[in-house]
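In full, the data:

***
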Amino acid sequence: MDESPSFYLISLGCPKNLVDSAGLATLLQRAGYVAADVPEQADLLIVNTCGFIESAREESRTVLQDLVQTRKPGQRIIAAGCYSQRCPQELAEIVPGIDGLIGTRRWMDILTVVERLDERAEERRTRDVAPGPVCHVLETPAVGQDVPGMPRVAVQGASAYLKLADGCRRSCAFCAIPLIKGPAVSRPPDAVLADAAWLAGRGVQEIILIAQDTTDYGRDLGIRNGLAELLDQLVDAVPQVAWIRLMYTYPDRVTGRLIETMARQPQILPYLDIPLQHAHPDVLRRMRRPPDVGRVQRTIERLRAAMPEIAIRTTFLVGFPGETEAEFQTLLGFVDEMEFDRVGVFAYSHEANTPAARLEDDVPPEVKEERRERLMAIQQPISLARNQALVGQTLDVLVEGQGDGMSVGRSYRDAPEIDGLVLVQAELPVGQVVPVRITAALEYDLVGETLQKGP
């Protein structure tokens, strides 16, 4: 009997890509493919690329080039995802050994691409065929709808990402996501609830809700207060899931109703990711972002009043075209005043076909990097102080690994991969939420102890 065909999939970029990668894998497995442990064992090699910024595209190219250079005879390579959607011709030219390209708007057509690769191989055996990859990057206006019977989730141990929507209706000047994904397309509430129940049935302890803008959920479906309504339904649907976490919220859509819902429902973690990008009104206007910084401050005050323990994460973009030293100083003062728990800082880079690409990229690279470092230098003692304030408290920790007398996990304050960890001086059961007494604090991580015995 012939062995089943196999695939090996590499997922790059954000958790939203990770969910699409899980979908690609599911479709292939339904068709009889099995997942290989290493690339050398696979018939089909797939890289779900990121095309958001140049550094991400460079990583995608490097991974694909490495696969092309080390491929075994008969292996086929497919570039999927955002980079393929945005720049298919560029990618095919830079990495000429790619056999197929499929964009992020039609990732669910992966089997069609595989079939066309089979047909291309047969054609090459019988007649001359023009060189170049099979390209399945369709000019569809929006991301395709769900595949029946397939959850839109990515399980990572006891946590899982659950996608609420894809695409984005915002017009931020620096962002290429609308070019790649198209307008926002929300999933029906029943589909989201079904996926949450599927995860709960598999013992998932943390559901992380993701979209390009989770606070915009349901608008295209005509649902008012869509995210808050969905959260109430989720709590009722999966009471056994310990944590529900929100990511990627838009500042002017963190409404009073959303704050009230978060404060009222213990399952919804007092954690919010609000990418603010800047704090000077003129820079925000050039960015095509909400310029009312006072409104942002009032929103954060309301969040902290309703949930005093809330952890707020944000990101800022420095070196945007025209950013003066005075404008940057305003940002420094804002960060110092607001005392965010977590801050990520990125240096601006021009992205083709975005509105900002029409502006002069007039802040030198060395100035961008220097501003990034100065902003992080302001934030680091703030993060340390906020962590030190937790010493002596007891936090629930989701245990993700253990060995050699230690365990590692995350508290409600820590989203996977981007925030800190809690190091525990005991071997605790992986995949469970355990109370931990905090004994020490670092800038990003916490150290704790527990009386609970390990397995």
Notes: The domain at 6-136 is CATH 3.40.50.12160 (Rossmann fold). The mean pLDDT is 94.
